[in-house]
Write a structure and sequence with these properties.
The protein contains nine helices and eleven strands.
Length: 255
């Protein structure tokens, strides 16, 4: 079994065949086809200042949590807390090296996700499943469900730098997010102090088999007819043999 399969920070959905969705503007869809893969953005570019941080509860609970450990090691709690503060500085540095690709888990299309992650009705959504994504990204990328906790009350496990990137605040719970993460941090001692190191400016592209990954392509609600024609032509041009489907939110009501 690979390290990816058993990593404790990445919890698999109970149903491996659950549908996952990635909503995007048309230009990002074309970029995906052009680059033959998925874009993994830097964690510090995702727009959430809490991205990659520990819960606030950790700050107040550390003295109690580490009390016994300090006794076993014969060190003061003050020294332990100082060491933990230094590990927080390293964690902040890690934000530029953690590359993240995000999906929405749901058996059905989401009107809220269309509104949140697309700017116009000339947008698309690709639909896949957890198990297909897991296979497509290979061993380099870890994949799992985001865990939603109360950052003011709940303790977040420490000592594993993936955990802060796989937890989000309860206010984001509606996203039902699945994440694939690639750690691109330099694998050498004291890398955090090397001023010559430069992380990828925005993120990285990872090549994947898009024909295997994508099950269906949905076009946004209320999109014009010409847009569907355009998407179908682009899909054919890139030799992607996938059905282009009008959003189910456009169906006529029955009275």
């Amino acid at each position: 079994m690979s390290n990816k399969a058993k990593h404790p920070s990445f919890k698999k959905p109970s149903n491996p065949k659950i549908r996952i969705w990635r909503y995007m503007d048309f230009t990002k869809f074309v970029l995906m086809l052009e680059n033959k893969g998925l874009f993994f953005a830097r964690a510090d570019s995702l727009g959430d200042s809490f991205e990659g941080s520990y819960a606030r509860a950790n700050e107040k609970l550390r003295p109690k949590i580490y009390e016994q450990k300090c006794k076993e090691l014969g060190v003061s709690i003050e020294k332990m807390l100082q060491a933990l503060k230094m590990s927080g500085d390293i964690l902040k540095w890690y934000r530029q090296w953690m590359m993240i690709n995000c999906w929405h888990m749901n058996e059905h299309e989401s009107a809220a996700m269309w509104n949140l992650y697309t700017k116009t009705n000339e947008s698309i959504c690709i639909q896949s499943t957890f198990e297909i994504l897991y296979e497509c990204v290979g061993d380099e990328a870890y994949v799992g469900e985001v865990q939603y906790i109360d950052y003011n009350e709940n303790w977040m496990s420490e000592g594993n730098f993936f955990d802060p990137f796989m937890h989000k605040r309860k206010s984001f719970e509606h996203e039902k997010e699945l994440r694939a993460i690639i750690d691109k941090s330099p694998k050498k001692p004291l890398a955090i102090h090397d001023k010559m190191l430069s992380a990828p400016e925005y993120g990285i592209w990872k090549k994947v088999n898009l024909d295997k990954l994508i099950q269906k392509i949905f076009i946004a609600p209320s999109s014009p007819d010409y847009f569907r024609d355009l998407v179908e032509k682009v899909v054919l041009r890139y030799d992607l043999k996938k059905e282009v489907v009008q959003s189910s939110l456009d169906e006529e009501p029955f009275y």
